[in-house]
Amino acid sequence: MANRYLQRFNRVDELNDLPEHSLLHVIGLPSRGVASPVKLIAQRFAYALGLVIAVALIVYFDKGGYTEPLTFIDALYYSAVSLSTTGYGDITPITQQARLLNIIIITPLRLLFVVLLVGTTLSVLTEESRKAWQIQRWRKRMRNHTVVIGYGTKGRSAVAALLADGVLPKDIVVVDTDQTALEIANNAGLVTVTGSATKSDVLRLAGVPKAKAVVVAPNLDDTAVLVTLSVRELAPAAWIVASVRESENQHLLEQSGADSVVISSETAGRMLGLATVTPSVVEMMEDLLSPDEGFSVAERLVAEDEVGANPRHLADIVLGVVRSGELYRIDSPEAETVEPGDRLLYVRRVFGEDEEK
């Protein structure tokens, strides 16, 4: 079954080979302070109106230099038809001073007015070119990032934990088919890719072959298995963390290549059971799992002065020792002494803003 799936997986047409301008509606890069179209149009209208009034004041200041004495309404009329290049010819400058003002001041303003009128079209073309260039640059530079597949409840929680642990938003790529979820992710500063993660071209656009880690968090277990199989095919060295609802599907994910599997339904069930008997335990566990405040479980490299010591006697509350990628609990014989290169799993105190001050 796996071989048949991989054959179909490899036959998918490659979006990865399309030019960047064809990917504007597929890859979403976070934007910075982009004004709404209504605001942009209002600004351009205000600029144009300001130019008309400025030229009218200049013409009215020299109202005696034209074919007839001008009122302010006449000056405003001359300004409008002159800047818009309509030029009826009923009012024209006749003195040397008036003609010089038209050459030096009004003609450059007329050109500026024309540029302002076509500015909206130019802005749209420039914006699309700029986005295509940004996508091209991002695709060349992306590496060692984290790809989160599925931006539902589990995916959003995973992203929140990553951000709280110091991962930059620009180093997280979200893959989903839900446009609403992708807009939320994009507004949070994350890069988004629209499409099904069961397709190789979508995974390649998300940079899975160059990713450091991949979080697989779809809503269905069978989708999680297929996605994990696809990710492992593209990224043999990436660390894959997958979520599954039912425990009987855990071995399928592990066989598909997942390095770590989280069983969401059983974990939630245990929490519910504990909450009915020992609610304080659940409160403490939620505190440990919450990265924003209180206590949290963290991992760090052992310090030089800690080598050879018993982890129980260190200043931090150590829960386990990670050695050569293997986790040893604090009560295991392997965790009796700390060795060079070990990583400590410990309880970290997270300070809030008020405590930091």
Task: Describe the model.
With 357 residues, the chain is α/β, with parallel strands linked by helices. Mean pLDDT is 80; it is low at 353-357. It has helices at residues 2-10, 37-61, 72-83, 96-117, 119-141, 153-164, 179-187, 200-205, 221-234, 250-256, 264-277, 279-289, 353-356, and strands at residues 27-28, 146-149, 172-176, 191-194, 213-216, 239-244, 260-263, 294-301, 317-323, 326-329, 343-350. The longest helix has 25 residues, at 37-61. The protein has three domains: 2-30 and 143-266, NAD(P)-binding Rossmann-like Domain (Rossmann fold, 3-Layer(aba) Sandwich); 37-119, Helix Hairpins (Orthogonal Bundle); 293-356, Alpha-Beta Plaits. It is built from 13 helices and eleven strands. It is elongated and about 105 Å long.
What distinguishing features does this structure have?
alpha/beta; 11 strands; seven-stranded mixed sheet
Kindly provide the radius of gyration, computed on alpha-carbon positions and rounded to a whole number of angstroms: 32 Å
| CATH architectural designation of the largest domain | 3-Layer(aba) Sandwich
CATH superfamily heading of the largest domain: NAD(P)-binding Rossmann-like Domain
> Quick check: average pLDDT?
80
Unreliable spans are 353-357
Give the helix/strand class: alpha/beta
How many individual β-strands? 11
Order of helices and strands: HEHHHHEHEHEHEHEHEHHEEEEH
How helix-rich are the residues, as a percent range? 40-55%
* Inertia-based shape: elongated
For this structure, the CATH topology of the largest domain is Rossmann fold
Distance between the termini: 58 Å
Question: Can you tell me the number of structural domains?
Answer: 3
Please indicate the percent range of residues in DSSP E strands (runs of 2 or more).
Answer: 15-25%
The side-by-side strand order for the widest beta sheet comes to 1-4-3-2-5-6-7
CATH class of the largest domain equals: Alpha Beta
Our count of helices gives 13
